[in-house]
Amino acid sequence: MTFREIIDSPSPNFDERRAEVRYLILHYTGMATGQEALDRLRDPEAKVSAHYLIEENGTIHQLVPEEKRAWHAGVSSWEDESDINSLSVGIELVNPGHDYPGYKGDYRPFPPAQMDSLLELSKAIVERNHILPWHVLGHSDVAPARKVDPGELFDWRWLAERGVGAWPAKAAGEMDPSPVHIRRMLKDYGYGFSGEDDAELRVVLSAFQRHFRPENFSGAPDPESAALLQALLDEKGKQAI
Ligand SMILES: [Zn+2]
Which residues are in the N-acetylmuramoyl-L-alanine amidase domain (predicted)? Predict the structure, then answer.
């Protein structure tokens, strides 16, 4: 397979990694156009970046070399790690994103050309950096209280079926859907919690559901969520090196 062309669009917004790459973090840009997003990610005043940006037509830009620390994750946490920027490669997918206060979004499906480019690029990144399937994450997974990207229209299943990321093979049988049990499983899988309150559990569970059960991400604990979590934990436990 010949690798498609990657356009060099350097950003000054990076510094030195303090750890080796372990995660791949996917985002959407949440801005009206790809050009607007590209300009912002290259603006020294904005102090944000990503390693790559993929336009809706599939064009790939490289903004920061993979060996450098791009600034895409912000305040984040996974597996008790908090410097996710040091530990990850970040890809921005052009998509206007959801509404939020002060911004009118236009969240829409990620076109096939964009997904094909993402698959090819992320396969290469995962191989180069030995990233494990359950370490391919959304921004919302590592920052559930602040972020919802890439969102429920992002097809994690499609990506996993083609070799990038984790997907529960089959839901494990009847599982205890109590909040205590679900919280423990979410923590074991990698999600970060700051306390013990139920409001936070709903936010984190909603991020999990957005990723692994996008048709219902209300954040309410239920047996299916518990079963999906258990299936993923089984997979992670079985394949862990
Ligand atoms: Zn993001």
Answer: 9-151
Just list the catalytic residues.
92
- Average pLDDT for 55-70: 97
What is the b/e burial string over 205-238, where b = at least 16 CB atoms within 10 angstroms of the residue's CB?
A: bbbbbbbbbeeebebebbeebbbbbbbbbebbee
In terms of Cβ atoms closer than 10 Å to its own Cβ (0-12, 13-18, 19+), residue 26 is: buried
For the chain, domains (ranges, CATH) are 6-161 (3.40.80.10), 179-239 (1.10.101.10)
Q: How far apart are the CA of 202 and the centre of ligand 1, in A?
A: 20
pLDDT one-digit tens code per residue, 64-85: 999 999 999 999 999 999 999 9
Tokens of 214: 């996008």
Determine contact, residues 89/35, Cβ cutoff 8 Å.
no
Q: Tell me the residue length of the chain.
A: 241
Amino acid identity of residue 99, one-letter, is D
Q: Are strands 68-70 and 14-16 parallel, antiparallel or unpaired?
A: antiparallel
Say what angle helices 223-239 and 179-189 make with each other, to 10 degrees. Answer: 30
CA–centroid distance, residue 30 to ligand 1 (Å): 8
Does the structure show a pLDDT above 90 at 170?
no
- 154 Cα to the center of ligand 1, angstroms: 13
